[in-house]
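Example 3.2
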Amino acid sequence: MPVNFPYLGQTLALISAVAWAFAVILFKKSGETVHPIALNLFKNLLALILLLPTMAIFHEVLFRPVQFSEYAIFLISGILGMAIGDTLFFMSLNRIGAGLSAIVGYMYSPSIIILSVLFLKESLSLLQILGVILILSALLSTTQIKLPENLSRKGLLIGILWGVLSAAATAIGVVLIKPMLGKTPLLWATEIRLLAGFFSLLLITLFLPARKRIIASLFTTKGLGYTIGGTLVGTYIALVVWLGGMKYTQASIAAPLNQISNIFVFILAAMILKDPINLIRILAIIVAFGGALLVFLG
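Structure, written as tokens:
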């Protein structure tokens, strides 16, 4: 794909959002039988297995002759984003529920924007800032909060803290590699991050008391097709184009475009799962796409 393609990074960021939204629908079905950590391990491993022959087809080497420091930064990025960040997200999700966890997760794009402005010297126009506000407002307006029963104030604060740290870990992982993405092949960068994410998460899992039950949930045949399909779209495809979005445009622009995957989930859930769409969601979809247009072109 030519680097001088107009709005290449923004386009890849939106494709990533669509791919991840489709994967969420599939993972929602597979998650009925597979433990979240086991699902994360499986999707990282399968995506890695699929990525290796893809790299061979495009004549991309598995290990580039670069300094160890470059490897270290991409490895740390993978550990932060795909192991620590995801694990903290699951801890937050289990403690405070999906609705509030989603709201805390919306800190992903503001975190990246703040870090990009501070450390990468990026900037957004007023129209793009307005677009980010519209996207986040649309997401917040459609999120329903249902806290788990018997959740204490301390438990609520801890759950929110895990969610905030999850968003921060993902954002830091992105900002760390952003300066090097311009001269780094996408497939190689994806490979190194997947390797780091899989093996570090595997190591974490081995120390969990319920590790046998977690791993055993992978071997249930029910939902296996959804798990494989979600991995193909959500990790193998979405992860590459997500990094492409970060590579070919500002991280502060790609991040809010990534975040409208939640809006695409509403649309796909209505089309595939027959979930109802009310007036609020229709308005949120319009507002979010309007915000995305401002971020895209602003």
